[in-house]
Design brief:
This protein has about 270 residues and is an alpha+beta fold. It is about 40% helix and about 20% strand. Helix 3 runs antiparallel to helix 4. This is Conjugal transfer protein.
């Protein structure tokens, strides 16, 4: 039996000093504007979002949900459409070469998805930009928009949906206040293979099999791996050291990233 009381309480939480306005919202003394990703780059490498999560003025939120959809089938349809276009592009060698490369890439991608029996996910990505003034937040959003579009992203500022995007991105809310059909369609269907490439953290060593990449050393750029469940994952070491649980203390000055780190640990 599921007790929904906690969810009811959770849905009534509201940050102090929250003011929703058209095109942005104010939280405390900070102006915040959100951008919704509507299309991802056609091709990207691992850690696509890593260059954005390191900026303290930009928060990247990504929500994932399993989707009952055949992503390979969708890609095959796209492959067939491009193949027909390729057959008709004989008089344009430049376009023909571009299509040929896209067909090769698509074919490889489809084969990997089929061979791995990949699962399709509905991915919602929201970039929230922070600033001290409305003018500054608009300027930062414009710069971020241009940078993302140059990389192949497509976005919308959704001026009348700022509260909804905040609710979609934040784990504090259980309802985005969007119609169910709209909320379902703001995401992007993506196979697990593509989803993995979005994450800003990637495994770099087998020394800590159950850990994840927390960051890099400032001077030597060495990988910092962290496993908050070390004593559960390695019971032999826990018994040898007489440890039943682990403790974590995060120390740092203002703006050092303590809150960001805690959010990462909670979400992980």
């Amino acid at each position: 039996m599921w007790n929904n009381d906690l969810l009811k309480k959770k849905s009534t939480f509201q940050p102090i000093g929250l003011k929703i306005q058209r095109g942005h919202y104010i939280l405390g003394d900070r102006y915040i504007k959100s951008l919704l990703v509507t299309e991802l780059p056609r091709q990207f490498d691992l850690g696509l979002l890593s260059s954005y999560v390191s900026n303290p003025e930009i928060k990247v939120f990504m929500r994932t949900e399993p989707l009952d959809l055949d992503c390979a089938g969708m890609l095959k349809k796209e492959y067939n459409d491009k193949s027909r276009e390729y057959q008709k592009s004989g008089n344009d060698p430049t376009r023909r070469e571009i299509l040929e490369n896209e067909l090769i890439s698509l074919n490889t991608y489809i084969k990997e998805i089929v061979d791995n029996h990949d699962v399709t996910w509905n991915i919602t990505i929201v970039f929230s930009v922070y600033a001290d003034t409305e003018k500054e937040v608009n300027k930062r959003c414009q710069d971020l928009n241009l940078r993302l579009r140059a990389e192949g992203f497509k976005l919308t500022s959704a001026p009348v949906m700022q509260e909804n995007l905040m609710r979609v991105a934040s784990p504090l809310f259980v309802d985005s206040l969007l119609p169910a059909e709209v909320e379902k369609n703001i995401g992007i269907p993506l196979p697990s293979l593509g989803l993995a490439g979005l994450y800003p953290f990637v495994f770099e060593t087998l020394k800590d099999r159950d850990g994840f990449l927390l960051g890099h050393e400032l001077m030597n750029k060495g990988a910092i791996l962290f496993d908050q469940f070390q004593w559960l994952d390695d019971p032999m070491s826990a018994r040898a050291l007489n440890r039943l649980s682990g403790n974590l203390v995060i120390v740092g000055g203002t703006g050092f990233g303590k809150s960001t780190l805690m959010k990462l640990l909670i979400r992980f």
